[in-house]
């Protein structure tokens, strides 16, 4: 196995945040494994795979949702043989059919080494209190 370089983990996480900030679903979801899981505090249950989240995302976009800004702060990278855990604070603003919303959350993304790439296999958001 290979222990990833922390800078590569930060770059992989930054690519996810950048794609999210652009409401670029294609680029965003390409960073996740098809069997990735997602735990988001506003959702009633865990999303069991990327396709399930993609369907949810498509519904949001169809309803007028889009990200207007997304910034990351206070990053921490923990590497281990075969992967890494990236955690940070994320400030997000979105436009919805009901108007603008902004929130601050804590996020954790778990990556695994897949060949020469880092692939996200889990994302977890919790409210910042």
Walk me through this protein's architecture.
The protein is an alpha+beta fold. The protein has one domain (about 5-125): Nuclear Transport Factor 2, Chain: A. Helix content is about 25%, strand content about 50%. A 5-stranded mixed sheet has the order 1-5-4-3-2. The chain is globular.
Q: How is the main sheet built?
A: 5 strands, mixed
Could you give the distance between the termini? 37 Å
SSE ordering: HHEHEEEE
Q: What form results from the Cα inertia axes?
A: globular
Mean pLDDT, to the nearest integer, reads 97
Total of helices: 3
- Content of β-strand: over 45%
Low-confidence stretches: none
Strand order of the largest sheet: 1-5-4-3-2
CATH topology: Nuclear Transport Factor 2, Chain: A
The CATH architecture: Roll
Kindly give the count of domains.
Answer: 1
**Structural class of the helix and strand makeup?**
alpha+beta
The overall strand count is: 5
CATH class, anyone?
A: Alpha Beta
- Helix content range of the residues, please? 25-40%
User: Radius of gyration in whole Å, from Cα?
Assistant: 14 Å
């Amino acid at each position: 196995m290979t222990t990833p370089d922390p800078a590569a983990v930060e770059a992989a996480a930054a690519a996810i945040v950048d794609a999210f900030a652009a409401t670029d679903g294609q680029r965003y979801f390409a960073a996740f494994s098809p069997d990735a899981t997602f735990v988001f505090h506003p959702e009633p249950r865990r999303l069991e795979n990327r396709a399930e989240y993609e369907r949810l995302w498509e519904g949001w976009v169809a309803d007028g949702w889009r990200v207007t800004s997304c910034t990351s702060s206070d990053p921490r990278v923990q590497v281990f043989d075969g992967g890494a855990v990236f955690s940070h604070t994320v400030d997000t603003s979105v436009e919805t059919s009901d108007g603008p919303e902004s929130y601050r959350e804590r996020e954790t993304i778990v990556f695994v080494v897949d060949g020469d790439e880092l692939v996200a296999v889990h994302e977890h958001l919790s409210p910042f209190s």
